Amino acid sequence: MKTRRTPWRARLQIVWWRHGGAGTALLVALLVVAGLLTWMLQQADAALAQTQQALAHGQSRTPVDTPPAEDHDENTRLAALQAVLVASPPPDEVVRHMAELAQRAGIAWAQGEYRAQWHADTQTTQWQVTQPALASYPQLRQLIDAVLRAHPNVSLDHMAVQRDDAAQSQAKVRLRWSIWTRGAAAPR
């Protein structure tokens, strides 16, 4: 009495006989990957169609009339800037606080270079502080984050990091900060 085999089972046995177990396993893996790719492509097509539909819906809406920009907007922004600068401490206190933050972060803070520049259009003074230091990347990130959070009138304009060897944990860092103040620079 012969049992009847299903066609797929017979084909699988032929593949097994011709290519062995490894070839059969590879074929099954390829079929599974092909099925997954087909499913992923269908999902991507559905997402693309949904995005295109949302874009078409957004473009079909009538544009909202925006009022033209006026001079009082510029004056409002300048007033907001001046309000921040009035509430900010003087540059020497900011630099002192930056040195304290560097010390807390464990950064070797060297003597820096200072330069003041008057900006007549905004009635502000930009104090540029170029600060060399020796720090690791996490220490540097902690310092930058702490300074920028503590002082809204400070910006980090430039940062140069140099390591002589990839195994060094500390890097030579050169930071250029700008401390913005209200009014003309006092001679120092």
User: How many whole angstroms does the radius of gyration measure?
Assistant: 33 Å
User: How many separate helices?
Assistant: 4
At CATH level 3, the topology of the largest domain is: Alpha-Beta Plaits
Based on helices, strands and strand pairing, what is the structural class? alpha+beta
Inertia-based shape? elongated
Order of helices and strands: HHHEEEHEE
The percentage of residues in β strands lies in 15-25%
How many discrete structural domains?
A: 2
Give the full name of the CATH homologous superfamily of the largest domain: Ribosomal protein S6/Translation elongation factor EF1B
First-to-last CA distance? 110 Å
Structure characterization notes:
The chain is α+β, with helices and mostly antiparallel strands. The chain has two domains: 7-51; 89-182, Alpha-Beta Plaits. Helix content is 53%, strand content 22%. The chain is built from four helices and five strands. Strands 1, 2, 3, 4 and 5 form a five-stranded antiparallel beta sheet that branches. Strand 4 and strand 5 (171-182) form a beta hairpin. Helix 3 runs antiparallel to helix 4 (137-150). The model has no long low-confidence stretch (mean pLDDT 82).
What are the main properties of this structure?
alpha+beta; five-stranded antiparallel β-sheet; 53% helix; single chain; 188 residues; Alpha-Beta Plaits; 2 domains
What is the element layout, followed by pairings?
Elements: H1 7-60, H2 71-87, H3 91-105, E1 108-109, E2 113-119, E3 124-135, H4 137-150, E4 154-162, E5 171-182
Antiparallel strand pairs: 1-3, 2-3, 3-5, 4-5
